[in-house]
Design brief:
By secondary structure, this protein is an alpha/beta fold. It has four domains: 9-356, Alpha-Beta Barrel (TIM Barrel), CATH 3.20.20; 383-416 and 617-748, Rossmann fold (3-Layer(aba) Sandwich); 434-601, Glucose-6-phosphate isomerase like protein, domain 1 (Rossmann fold, 3-Layer(aba) Sandwich), CATH 3.40.50; 756-945, Rossmann fold (3-Layer(aba) Sandwich), CATH 3.40.50. It is 50% helix and 13% strand. It has 38 helices and 24 strands. It is elongated, with a radius of gyration of 35 Å. The structure holds D-altro-hept-2-ulose 7-phosphate and glyceraldehyde-3-phosphate.
Length: 949
Amino acid sequence: MANDTEKSPLNQLARCGQSIWLDFIRRDFTTNGSLKELVDHNVVRGVTSNPSIFEKAIGHGAEYEEETRALLAQKSLSAGELYEHLAVEDIQHACDVLAPVFNATNKRDGYVSFEVSPYIAHDQDATLHEARRLWRAVARDNLMIKIPATVEAVGAVRQAIAEGINVNVTLLFSIELYKDILEAYIAGLEARVAQGKAIDHVASVASFFVSRIDTKIDAEIDRRVADGDLQAGALQALRGKVAIANATCAYHYYKEVTESERWKALAAQGAQTQRLLWASTSTKDKAYRDVLYVEELIGDATVNTLPPITLEAFRDHGVAQPRLAEGAEEARHVLTQADRLGLKLDDITDTLLTEGCAAFCLSFDALLGAVAARREAVLGEKLLTVSNALPDDMAASVVAAEKEWSREDKIRRLWERDASVWTNGSESKWLGWLTAAQDGLANIDAYNRLAQDVKTHGYKDVLLLGMGGSSLGPEVLEKTFGRVDGGPTLHVLDSTDPQQIATFRDAVDLGNTLFIVSSKSGSTLEPNILLAYFWEQAKKALGREPSERFVAVTDPGSAMEQKAKDHGFSHIFYGNPEIGGRYSVLSPFGLTPAAAAGYDVRAFLENVQLMVASCDATVPAMVNPGVQLGLALGVAATSFGRDKITFVASPEIASLGAWLEQLLAESTGKRGTGLIPFDGETLGEPSVYGQDRVFVELRLGHEPVDSRLKALREVGHPVLGLHLQTPEQIGQAFFAFEFATAVAGSILGIDPFDQPDVEFSKVETRKLTEAYAETGHLPEEVPFASDGSLTFYADDKNAAALGTGDAASVLGAHFKRVGAGDYIGLLAYIERNSSHTQWEQDVRLMLRDRLHVATAAQFGPRFLHSTGQAYKGGPNSGVFLQITAEDAADLAIPHHAYTFGVVKAAQARGDFDVLASRGRRALRVHITGPLSEGLERLAKVLSDVVKGA
Ligand SMILES: O=C(CO)[C@@H](O)[C@H](O)[C@H](O)[C@H](O)COP(=O)(O)O
Ligand SMILES: O=C[C@H](O)COP(=O)(O)O
């Protein structure tokens, strides 16, 4: 620093009353002594940072890697948390280096500026909240919190000052706004005085951006000159002048105010003026001197923050002469002239503010994106990965959606439970799932107690009774993790089929079973009647009341809670009323059975937390796995007509498919739109698919699930991938898909948290069972056609379309109604056992291969709580074949007037009535006589009628 003598240009600036701050920060620059050297030689008296500066530093600097690794080894941190850790440390180091200047100048200089998130620039409360948080996090007296100068920020600046937080108000372009900011500073100080608080330690600068104004004005001048403007000469004379004139006028306003009596009263109490800080002072137009925005803006009580390159230039050949004090008249003349020539400075400063905020948001996105990528690299195989292989046009639309999400700050708004991300309905009351894993960890002792109880009693079986959201998650856990050595077997029963209930009853050791009755609402028919049935069964097996063998999972205040209390259940686990059933797997509805089965709930949830952090509010759309999946699903459906989501899974995690079906269908299938999910439809050759599919590969390990996916990708089908490294990552998959569904719901423009048609079916079923209880029979129904063991029922409209012929003619007419873009739903109200599952599978694949449409294979009443929503409320593209049969044997329900067989029949009829009322193409075939023969015949007729189709 030998050239920074008394006469050096930089030292001359100090003599003119101007402080030079450095517009740059980076860890190695601070740690290797470079910053200290500049400070020691009195070259630099402060530091400013902004999102772009941090993007270059943290986003690209290898020196941050080691610490990233160390931080992640300690705990799960999101990209935002990581960034903040690293940035706060950098800011603290710089503050410490500048502390001697701060002390020597009596708190006038020696500040380091740290900017609040640019995303919240238009939110006064959020800005203030963030200012307080960062102020506390850095905890240095010579910190300045940078707040962008939007209209909304004015109040935040005033309040922050009143609270004694130093503020650098940044992104100032307009003199009008600057006046408001200066007023906010003064009012903030006055508020402190009114409260008897000291003001001599509160500092603020107003960062006026310079070069960007010339960039815009000069471009406008050049355009008009090129267009042959008659005022070309006068216009050209203003090139490179307007920005300086604007800044000069701001300076004179500052002078005026600080000479006012009002200010003098504050100064008497030790107040520091809010100095103007010239920012954006590197020269952008190479035709100008590279020190133009330094030399022209020299004046007493100002700061100029310079990037290293401009600092070096001025040091080398800058001329330090005070210009501002003298320049008022000329500046006013330039601005008047600009106005006269139609150069609209107000419009330009407004645009610059908007563009400045947007540019900082982009930098912040790039910064957080880079941190997220580094986090992913460090966590490696601890995280599942999402990969989207999309055709070019779809990929471009997803990128556009990403930009939209970034611009509209939707990820943060989603995390803040802002219903305007969806329909502005009741969505904000249904986002408890975002923190379910964290809540579960807080409640870990209760799960451990249950696990201990199960061990102490040595239960052989755990039988969970519940439907939909209460059963599908636990089923995935059981199918994925199986039985823990020495632990019980977890069984999940979600049916009213008498045979299925009997099969479960016979599979468990009734005298040595823990029963979990799971119902959020507590009013769902199935868990209530299953409870009635198994209570009696357990009582019979034990020879006494089985109270301690029963556990309830339900929302507080539900009828089930009361029942559990009345019956003296050993445990009641309470759900979060802000989590809907299909989003409840990471809440007590999944964790209670998991604990009972002996799974390590803590490890499971900690694993989930990694994905929660990956989808965090701070992780930009382009690297946020939940957003990536959700945008691809939403965009594929809304812009490309690809609304059939086909899951293809590694066998070890295949059970995820049924859970996903509920999540997607129940969340999105409404108001005539939606994503229709298809689980378990074995892949075929590309020729059997229409243009309405999205394939989702759920892969465990490194091997692709099915080699045919490659061919499908090659012919232009979108293939999304969720790649799990270990089965434990199933928890991460739950969260990633919950998030994705919420995102897709936003794109579809629906409320992804209600399920009107599931509720409607429940009501219809209840009406029928109540009628049965009164009359002893279900309402009469008349088949419109019959053929031996196959009898056909439908509403009048469907019946009229299908004729009264034999089975082949009715079924033939029904499936003739299937067209491109449709799907087929087989809805069988029979036992869900392996042979029936295989039957459905064979029939669906045959139909798929012949008719080239997507096919769903469902069992009632299970699907009523799941895909049933989309079948009724989603697009009218489903063609349904409901299959019912005589029950070989029925089961009575203790204390009820009806049997399980009656309930199941009522459910099928209720389901059909709702399908028909929604104008769906639906047909019910009822099988009489031996079921296997009836199914065989039905399969044969179906195969014949669609042959050659
Ligand atoms: O802290 C501040 C202003 O307070 C600075 O970092 C300010 O953000 C920068 O000078 C500007 O962003 C740089 O603008 P530009 O040279 O890219 O137009
Ligand atoms: O998905 C939810 C099912 O409809 C069951 O509801 P529930 O948990 O209130 O009994």
